[in-house]
Structure formats: structure tokens, C-alpha cells
Amino acid sequence: MVYIALLRGINVGGKNILKMAELRRVLKEEAGLARVQTYIQSGNVLFESSEEKSVLRKRIEQVIESAFGMSVSVIVRTASELRSIADRCPFTEEELTKAAESSVGESLYVSILQEELPGEQVEKLHSADFGEDKYVILGKEIYLLYSNSSLNSKLSGRLDKLGVPATVRNFKTLNKLIDLAAEMEQNIP
Fold first, then answer.
1. pLDDT number for residue 102
2. CA 161, 135, 137, 76 torsion: positive or negative?
3. Going by DSSP bridges, is the β-strand pair 166-170/134-138 parallel, antiparallel, or unpaired?
4. For the chain, where are the E strands, in sequence order?
5. pLDDT of residue 187 exceeding 90
6. Which residues are CB-contacts of 77 (< 8 A; sequence separation ≥ 6)?
7. Model confidence over 126-141: pLDDT tens digits?
8. 3-state secondary structure of 12
9. What is the architecture of the domain spanning 2-79+178-186?
10. Domain positions in the chain
11. Where are the beta strands (DSSP E) in 41-184?
12. N vs C: which end of the chain shows fewer Cβ within 10 Å?
């Protein structure tokens, strides 16, 4: 099965610097993953395995800590789960167009969570004012639509305080990962 491991906080702001070639080598040799490939420098890893997601997540986190001395949260999804995330985008074309016209850079993101948010965290999000920025919680994902910039958003700041391991990707990256996963699935030996 093709999986995608999303590493949180890799190569951001000069912290947790990790060379992708070295990460690929370690995940092949020490974690025993097959056909490992990475996409850009922000910790997107595609690979094949017949093991369960929870086992893979723990192993990847342990191997990274052992090999590189850094504790990193890892979120693992199957290729079909990633496709489902993209397909379930809750925002209308009109909302997407309006945000894209007013935003500096990307406007559509998804926060991919290790587990569903507890009810009290959902309530805290619902009670906050994020201006024109929008979010929708669907299971273990929070879809984010920024009206100006993700960098200056109160919503972005709040996501780090939810108490559930998560990592955020823009939809451009998400769609590229989906394409790469589809290529891997078509070329399974």
C-alpha cells in the first residue's frame, strides 16, 4: 500500500534541519520502508508498506529521533485518504476565488490531525473570532481558507494550541502528493 508521511516542523525557520536524501536513506535502511521518495523540503514522504499506519507512524518518529536527534510529530495517511481529503474540500468555488483574489500567496490549506479534536478544543475554535478567515472541521482534518495571509492569521496561531499532533499543507502541495502517490500506485512492482 502507498502511504504518505507528513512530518511536522521540518526545515522551517532554520529549525529541525533535515536533508531529504539523508531522510530517504534512513527510512529505507533503518525503518525498512520501500520505494521511499520525498517531495520538497518540508517533510513529505511517500513510501510503500504492508503494515498498519499506527505502527508506521511510531517507527518513523523513533527512527528520526534516533538518527537525527529530533522529536518530530508524524501524520500518516494512505493515498486514498489523501485523495478523500482533497475531494471533501468544503469551500465553494466562489469562496475559493474570493480568497485567492485577496490573499497574499496560497489561501487554501488543510491541517491534518493525528486524531479528531476533543469537543472542548472544537468549542474554543468556534468561540474565537478569526475575521474573514474560515475553517471547517471534518473528522481528522481542518480545512482553512485565508482571506489575506496564513502568516498573519489569528487562526494559524490558534492551530498550534489545539493539543493534538497536526501538520498543515497547502492544497498545491496536497494535490502534488496525490499525483505522486497515484504514479507510485500505477507502478507497483
1. 85
2. negative
3. unpaired
4. 2-7, 34-39, 44-48, 74-78, 108-113, 134-138, 141-145, 166-170
5. no
6. 3, 4, 6, 53, 85, 112
7. 999 999 999 999 999 9
8. strand
9. 2-Layer Sandwich (3.30)
10. 2-79+178-186, 84-169
11. 44-48, 74-78, 108-113, 134-138, 141-145, 166-170
12. C
Q: Does domain 84-169 have CATH number 3.40.50?
A: no
Question: Across-strand partners of 48?
Answer: 2, 34
Written as one letter, the residue type at 181 is A
**Residue-wise pLDDT tens digits, 113-172:** 999 999 999 998 999 999 999 999 999 999 999 998 888 789 988 988 888 999 999 999
- Alpha-carbon distance 58 to 27, whole Å? 12
Cα 85 to Cα 189: distance, rounded to the nearest angstrom: 27
Q: With H, G, I as helix, E, B as strand and everything else as coil, classify residue 163.
A: coil
CA separation, residue 90 to residues 80, 94, 98, 151, 180 (Å)? 18, 12, 15, 22, 23
Residue with cell 520538497: 40
Question: In Å, how far are 4, 121, 133, 141, 165 from 126, measured between CA atoms?
Answer: 30, 9, 12, 15, 19
The pLDDT of residue 46: 98
What phi, psi does 83 have (nearest 5°)? -60, -40
